[in-house]
Amino acid sequence: MTATRTDRGPRSRDAILQAASDLCREQGYAAVTMEAIATRARVGKPTLYRWWPSKGAVFLDVVLDKLVEPAIELPDTGDMVRDLRTWIRGFADLFTDPHARQLLVGLLGAAQTDTELATVLREKVQRPLQAGNRQRIIAAQDAGELPAMDPTLLEELLISPPWYRLLVSGEPVTREYADQLVDAVLSVRPQRPTAAPPQK
Amino acid sequence: MTATRTDRGPRSRDAILQAASDLCREQGYAAVTMEAIATRARVGKPTLYRWWPSKGAVFLDVVLDKLVEPAIELPDTGDMVRDLRTWIRGFADLFTDPHARQLLVGLLGAAQTDTELATVLREKVQRPLQAGNRQRIIAAQDAGELPAMDPTLLEELLISPPWYRLLVSGEPVTREYADQLVDAVLSVRPQRPTAAPPQK
DNA sequence: AACGCGAAACGTAACGTTCAGTTTTGACAG
DNA sequence: CTGTCAAAACTGAACGTTACGTTTCGCGTT
């Protein structure tokens, strides 16, 4: 037994992810099968299943490699308002690009009926981004650059509408929309601590 | 003309939708198959496929029958702010109920990889609701009850975060969250017509 | 000689369709 | 109003297909 055996990636990880990405571009997410990925990447199906339990898991890694790092992180130029605008514009660009759109919509769709995948997706994408952004938002609020409100809610007000358009309404997410959205959210008046006006 | 039968509609529509709903509650959306629905409803598979092209189409009708009418429409008591609060709370309740959650998440997930289904979903749910709400929002803005901004954006700011939590982040959608959300969005200052501050 | 991997083959599950044989329906004659 | 009948629609079983996920085999590397 030569020590730990399972903790290295497959030899041809890149070939596999590239194959999956290409197939998705050519035929759309739904039409891609594990068999096709294996064939295209010239690997055996057992090898594929050895490291990824499902099609969704493969595409999660595709998205992590190709989209998340470069395109989804909040930039940091010192000007928070400007950074937020750039960030949301980045989502608009991402959601407009047909290939990225295919990848994200397919992956999120799969995650809706695959608990395992949904968990990993949140831990690997959601969690890290949110944690980092949260600190930035709080700091900017303290500096008076952003409206004083629950930082989680502020982030959600910015990021939810693009996702809603992508996954629910299907409306396009343009840069103009991104700008309009940021303007609106940053125009919120400071909130009273938590006192919701009595409903009745 | 006695109209040949009740035009359209299988004889046992209700039995089929009930079977689908029950199976979803018992086993989860993903585990439900067309075969199982047919068996449970004591209907032949051909009959099922005669009226619904896919599992997603069946569940769309389940959702239309059981959720949309009673639970997703914006109420109208004359007090728009209060109506909006009630409306978003309704979504919170819906997204918290395990069965409704299963149905909605499964259906939306399927729609991500089924263009046909996505189109019908938008036409039958999205479109009608949005159109009605839009008029109400504009009227309330004219009356000074709501912040002056693009009515579509205002609606999206309210409705997106719950959907985002349901489909993307997985965070719970409580009534408290709904109230907090409405408070924040209604605190937006009137927007300058469209003048986005120059980015550079 | 042993190992790891690609390729092929296998059993399973669900799909969506086809094919009898039966039940339901509405129309019409008595 | 009622009995009869043909057409339509339905059930249930079976079929071919596809993709899944696993197992087996053989080859090349070490």
From TrEMBL, chains A, B:
Q: Which InterPro entries match?
A: Homeodomain-like_sf, HTH-type_TetR-like_transc_reg, HTH_TetR, Tet_transcr_reg_TetR-rel_C_sf, TetR_C
Q: Which keywords label this protein?
A: DNA-binding, Transcription, Transcription regulation
Q: Which residues bind DNA?
A: 33-52
A molecular function (GO) term: transcription cis-regulatory region binding
Asked if the record carries the keyword Transcription regulation, the reply is yes
Q: Which domain of life is it from?
A: Bacteria
Q: In this protein, which residues make up the domain named HTH tetR-type?
A: 10-70
PROSITE patterns named in the record: HTH_TETR_2
The residue stretches assigned to a coiled coil in this entry are none
Name it: AcrR family transcriptional regulator
Per the UniProt record, the source organism is: Streptomyces echinatus
Taxonomic lineage: Bacteria, Bacillati, Actinomycetota, Actinomycetes, Kitasatosporales
